[in-house]
Write a structure and sequence with these properties.
The chain has helices spanning about 30-35, 50-60, 90-105, 115-125, 165-170, 210-215; strands at about 20-25, 40-45, 75-80, 130-135, 135, 140, 145-150, 160, 185-190, 200, 235, 245, 250-255, 265-275, 280. The model is unreliable at about 1-10 (pLDDT under 50). The strands form three sheets. Strands 1, 2, 3, 4, 7, 9, 12, 14 and 15 form a nine-stranded mixed beta sheet that branches. Strands 8-13-10-11 form a four-stranded antiparallel beta sheet, with no helix packed on it. It is globular and about 50 Å long. Strand 14 (about 265-275) and strand 15 (about 280) form a beta hairpin. It has one domain: q2cbj1_9rhob like domain (Jelly Rolls). The longest helix is centred in the middle third of the chain and has 19 residues, at about 90-105. It contains six helices and 15 strands. It is of the alpha+beta class and about 280 residues long.
Length: about 280
Amino acid sequence: MTASDPIDPPGQRDAAYFRFLESDGVDWDAWWDVLRGRVAGAVFRGALSPEVCERTCRNFWSSPLLSSPNATRSTERAVGPLLIASGSMDTYLTESDRTRAGLGEICGGPGRTLPALLDEWRAYLADRGVRSRLAEYDGRRAGAYKLRSRADSKGFGLLPHDDAMHNWALPHLRDFEIQGVKRICNALLCLENGPGGELVYWNTAFGSEERRALGMRPDSYGYPLEALAGVERITLPIHAGDMYIFDGGNVHAVAPSATEDVRRTVALWITGPLADGTVLQWA
């Protein structure tokens, strides 16, 4: 088999699982169902007000912490740690500490902000006897979330990929406790977006053997579209103020923006449950 050959995709799930629960406003019960593997994803429309989104974006674009972390993508801007690309846990944790207070200032302020929503989530879990905390490594805390913006109209904003294999397989993450979570879930909050930029989500997950059959290494990024031919998928419109969570083991992508120079700015983090029921969060 070559990298261009289609394969029989593994890991497809039934209709009861492969769907997104949708609601106006936040439904923490639905969020909890995604974490427990009962459903693929959930989206909450208008979780943040337009005023809070606009203020957060102003803070983001004027922040002295704003950087261009991807040399091959001229439109990308970000604030926060880069776990996968960091190369070492010390680099990642140092950047987490350096940007922690600044991220809180960017996303804070009056109203129902991202930090306020995360406080609500922790209170929801605590009411059910579930502990929630930031992931740790050698006594140091992971980043809680990061902010990223891209403007792409000629191709995928993010290529088809999954996040589980990277978090579980990259050598520099060895012994980081996130490798013990039962399920890796991506969590995002959209701060600004124009037409396009939808979440594209396929009903398949590739394991190590399937990745090797496609010619991919542990650090390879982006599945060939031929491997996804005929696979059921969901295309989910995403608007400013929407918060959403999904099983990061399934292949997913960001569709191109419909017009030039449209900013798609999100806050994002990853979360998952350990075997003892503790819910970890990291960025």
